[in-house]
Amino acid sequence: MCPGGIGCKGGGIRFAGRLSRAAFAQMIDEKHDEIRRSVGLLPLYGLAGSSGLRMIGEWGWSDGVLSTAGLAYGLPTGTGPWVEIVTTAGPAEELVANRRTAIALAVEPPRDSETFQRVVDAVTAEQPGEVTIEVDGVGKTFRYWPQQPVGREGGAGWLAALDEVPGLVVAASRLEPHEVGLVAVADVEPYLAATKEYLLAEYDTAPPLDQP
């Protein structure tokens, strides 16, 4: 589930005609219960001083083990700042590479294997710089990819990776790295509540599937 995350189109999906509202709400609750059971397995970090929309970002499991846990602020396609902070059990730069490749392939869908390989090669060939981002008040050096697309329709932003154990990945747009400070987050309930409210509002306003 990533309603505010980099992997979601505008933070939402098409719902109407697939599930009843009650069934959709139950699906959200089940996913949120899964997240609750995983809290504490990976440290969570949020955006210091944020007072805007905050939601659950990317949460993923590999073979039943929590592999990524993220929190998001704003929306990739919104007009204000958007930030997603993801803790990863695996190498942070690997997560960045996977995200950059997935977005590049979405922006330019491969017509054949040659096109696919060209897109992948272009992504892997770009060397990152470095940037300092505060984590719990301590400046840490992140690998930094400026001017990155944050989604097929999300415009340009940047990505940063801290290869510690566990690792951290920051994705942002309309906000500079020096404006980002990360702080530990223990309580996910406000994020879960806002996520459910947002998704149900998206459901209520989504057109039927037979409409464009």
Q: What's the total helix number?
A: 4
**What is the structural class?**
alpha+beta
Terminal Cα span = 24 Å
Query: What does the oligomeric state look like here?
Result: single chain
Count of DSSP E strands? 9
Overall spatial form: globular
What summary fits the major beta sheet? 9 strands, mixed
- Per DSSP, what share of the residues sits in E-state strands of 2 or more residues? 25-35%
Low-confidence stretches: 4-12
Radius of gyration: 17 Å
Overall mean confidence score, pLDDT: 86
The number of distinct structural domains comes to 1
Order of helices and strands: HEEEEHHEEEEEH
The helix content, as a percent range, equals 25-40%
Can you list the strand order of the major beta sheet? 1-9-5-6-7-8-4-3-2
Topology of this structure?
Layout: H1 21-38, E1 44-47, E2 54-62, E3 65-73, E4 82-88, H2 92-107, H3 113-125, E5 129-135, E6 138-149, E7 156-162, E8 167-173, E9 181-185, H4 189-205
Parallel strand pairs: 5-9
Antiparallel strand pairs: 1-9, 2-3, 3-4, 4-8, 5-6, 6-7, 7-8
Give a written overview of the molecule:
- There is one protein chain.
- Helix 1 runs antiparallel to helix 4 (189-205) and helix 2 (92-107) crosses helix 3.
- Helices cover 30% and strands 32% of the residues.
- The two termini are 24 Å apart.
- A nine-stranded mixed beta sheet has the order 1-9-5-6-7-8-4-3-2, with helices on both faces.
- The chain contains four helices and nine strands.
- The protein is an alpha+beta fold and 212 residues long.
- The protein has helices spanning 21-38, 92-107, 113-125, 189-205; strands spanning 44-47, 54-62, 65-73, 82-88, 129-135, 138-149, 156-162, 167-173, 181-185.
- The protein has one domain (9-205).
- The radius of gyration is 17 Å and the shape is globular.
- Mean pLDDT is 86; it is low at 4-12.
